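Recall from the previous lesson that a structure prediction takes nothing but the amino acid sequence as input. Here we apply that procedure to UBA domain-containing protein from Chromulina nebulosa. The sequence below is the only information supplied.
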Amino acid sequence: MSAIGFENAPVTRGFIVLVLFSSLTIGSVDISFDLNRILMGELWRLLFSHIAFTNMAQAVVGSITLYTLRIFERQMGIKKFGAFIVISYLLSIVLQIAAIVIISSLGFDNYIPSSGPYFIIFSLTYLYYAHVPHLQSRRLGVLGIDISEKSWIYVLLIQLLLSDGFNSSGSAAIGWLIGFIYDSNTVGIQSIRLPKFVENVLSIIYNFLHSLLFRPTIPNMQQHGVPVGRDVGIGALSDFNEYRDMLRPNNNNRYVPSVHNPEPPSEDSISTLMSLGFDRATVIQALQATDNNLDAAANR
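The prediction returns the following tokens.
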């Protein structure tokens, strides 16, 4: 929150990179969670059907949603959030098999869950719905319905929900159920952590993707007193824009850092953002950096 983009959310960043990369490279191939083919030995479908979307439009919408929901990694911590993803994935496999069996017994033999990380997107959506308060009680009213700062993410989620009709709706429902199970802490599920060797493997995968796709290439900024060497990728452009806005020309046409002294944030704003799980110092820093804009501060 006190940082820009994916700061303090490396797992989310790595997962989004994996989703976009896999959707681009194998999304056009049949990677569906086809239970008959899985039982015939195509076990790779268990993994890839939960990572790659079948088209880039879904991948972009899903990635934007995951980016917004990165606040839960910051709140849980890296290890707990990593365990949450793995637990959600394993639960999704079990629940999808059960759904296929039940739906097939009702005479609907053509049901195949949509490919993509619906399990993590909609499980996090449940947590978002249940625990993230509206930062403003009302932004806009349409036909008597209040539209808040949370509404736009639900619009994106509806697009994913309906993208493949019944198949995507089933995948979304399973993800929502996983979020409910985790939130209710059934059999102490929230206390589960990944074994050390699993953390090491995931760290190697993340570092490989990170080094492959992100490069520190912000040129000619160090001479102006701006830190360089940050990765240029999703989120890093916002770093560049912030540094650009911090610089302004003086009378000698040389660029110097602008001076800005924001008003101290109110206790109500601090309390609202602290309810999201952030500490007081981080909340104050984020509010000061965004001119006390609750929406912008919560999304940092």
